């Protein structure tokens, strides 16, 4: 089903929690017009389901030229397939916030993600195809991680972010378990940071 959205130009902040109600049917809704109608916003919050809705139900991703703040909520059952396209569509993005980093591992997350599917063919293809990472061209200055758990997947993702976001100036990490504070902080502080503008991680 396709909807038309009118008079959304004045919106500055949008919080989306879209749902793919029936995963067994090949027919989904269409959020293309919704995405095109909110291109003037400066702040966007996306739920885990919204990420998948953008991936499956958006025929073309518009350019969010005014978007400064992007907040992503992660869920271990939902993938990040749309992340490369989304980041490439936000040329002036300043602050990127993640509520959790654990998500469903797929072979479609692209270069925004450090996850590797358990598939030998996909691993070989990934090694052969050297592409420009969307993170290299991303202008994000502030990276904030909320509810960081310190798992291997999360640490691997942090290494990926810090090793590719070249314009990064500030990194903030929160939600670390008090019982493992010293160990988890030490792991994060040992990660190399590619940006010459950022020399520390702030724990909140």
From TrEMBL:
Record-linked InterPro entries: FBD, FBL60-like
Signal peptide: none
FBD domain boundaries: 133-204
Domain of life: Eukaryota
Cited PANTHER family: RNI-LIKE SUPERFAMILY PROTEIN
Protein name: FBD domain-containing protein
């Amino acid at each position: 089903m396709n909807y038309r959205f009118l008079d959304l130009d004045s919106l500055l902040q949008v919080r989306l929690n879209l749902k793919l109600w029936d995963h067994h049917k090949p027919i989904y809704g269409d959020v293309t017009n919704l995405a095109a109608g909110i291109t003037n916003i400066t702040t966007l919050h996306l739920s885990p389901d919204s990420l998948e809705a953008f991936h499956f139900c958006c025929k073309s991703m518009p350019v969010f030229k005014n978007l400064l703040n992007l907040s992503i909520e992660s869920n271990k059952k939902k993938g990040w397939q749309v992340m490369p396209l989304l980041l490439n569509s936000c040329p002036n993005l300043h602050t990127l916030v993640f509520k959790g980093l654990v998500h469903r591992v797929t072979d479609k997350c692209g270069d925004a993600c450090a996850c590797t599917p358990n598939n030998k063919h996909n691993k070989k293809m990934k090694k052969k195809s050297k592409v420009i990472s969307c993170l290299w061209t991303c202008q994000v200055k502030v990276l904030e991680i909320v509810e960081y758990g310190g798992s291997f997947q999360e640490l691997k993702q942090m290494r990926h972010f810090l090793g590719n976001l070249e314009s990064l100036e500030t990194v903030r990490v929160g939600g670390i378990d008090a019982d493992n504070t010293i160990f988890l902080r030490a792991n994060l502080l040992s990660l190399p940071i590619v940006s010459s503008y950022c020399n520390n991680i702030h724990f909140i």
